[in-house]
Amino acid sequence: MMVACFSGVWIATTVTSTLTCITYVFHILACYRKHMKRLRVGKKHFLLSDVDRISHSLSVVALARYSSWQIAYTLWGYFIMHLVQWVAVMIFMYVVILPMVHGQWMELIDKWGMTILTFILIMVIKKLQLLMARFFLQPKISPEDKQQPLALNNRKAFQNFTYFLFFYTVVVGLVSCLMRLLRSMVVGSWLIGRIDRPVMPKGYEACDMGFKTWVGMLLMDHYHTNPSLLAFCHILVSKNREKEFHRATSFARTELMGTGCRVSVRARTRWLLLYTLLNNPSLVALRKPKPCPQSVDFPVKYSA
């Protein structure tokens, strides 16, 4: 029985972990596209609270090692996710499913009845607090408002409500802290293979080297593939070439005019034509061919 349960849980967790990792690959591609779009409109602080702390050398290294780190993080994420899922499902099978299969309902209720009742009571108290909080807020200003204004209507009643529920909220806080730890463990093990999301809390993202690699790679791609930046650089290069051409043309004209000799319009035109053909050799084939002059026979005089 235990061997069959062990193998069945192992196969099920293998399938779920594999599908999750495959889904992560496509989701990371979608996140790359979304993050690049946000970077191109000037939004950088959604990645890190202080993006300027990412040095340029780190961005270069991040671009070089991103592919390798993505494979390594995916493999570790699969292994950790598979192990955590297998352990969690085995505990659930041993604690809940197997006693139910063997007909040990009463023992199961005696063992976990108080825990389940306490959990249900805490959830009811939390929902009750949310429902009763609406009575202490002022009514809506407009019927189209989604929520009531954040202003207390009866402060004394609210203080009495807080006083009488003080000890209950302490118990709720203890359970909430444990649930916070459990959720952090589950989400951390689930997202350990996601290099595009920080595992550390907000303000400590710089401690996550995988996420810093993702940010550095994004910045390098952003600065080298930004359409606005590429168009701006193309305009600068074009303007620079035009200035060099005009400078060279004006320099040739000043040299011709500075010799003190009289230069005909025809000679100047031919010089500009030669300069244009040297810079654009493809125009030579498009020129109209000039017919060759025919030879003329001159009469020869013989002396007597």
Structure description:
The protein has 304 residues and is mainly α. It is built from 8 helices and no strands. It has helices at residues 2-40, 56-101, 105-133, 155-164, 166-190, 209-225, 227-258, 265-279. Helix 1 packs antiparallel against helix 2 (56-101), helix 1 (2-40) packs parallel to helix 6 (209-225) and helix 3 (105-133) crosses helix 5.
On the 0-100 scale, what is the average pLDDT? 80
Which sequence of SSEs, written as H and E, runs from N to C?
A: HHHHHHHH
N-C termini distance: 140 Å
The percentage of residues in β strands lies in under 5%
Q: Please report the number of helical segments.
A: 8
Q: What would you report as the Rg, rounded to the nearest angstrom?
A: 39 Å
Briefly note the structural class of the backbone.
mainly alpha
Any low-confidence stretches, pLDDT <50, length ≥5? 295-304
Annotation keywords:
mainly alpha; elongated
Chart the SSEs and their pairings.
Layout: H1 2-40, H2 56-101, H3 105-133, H4 155-164, H5 166-190, H6 209-225, H7 227-258, H8 265-279
Helix pairs in contact: 1-2, 1-6, 2-6, 3-5
Q: How would you briefly describe this protein structure?
A:
This protein is mainly alpha-helical.
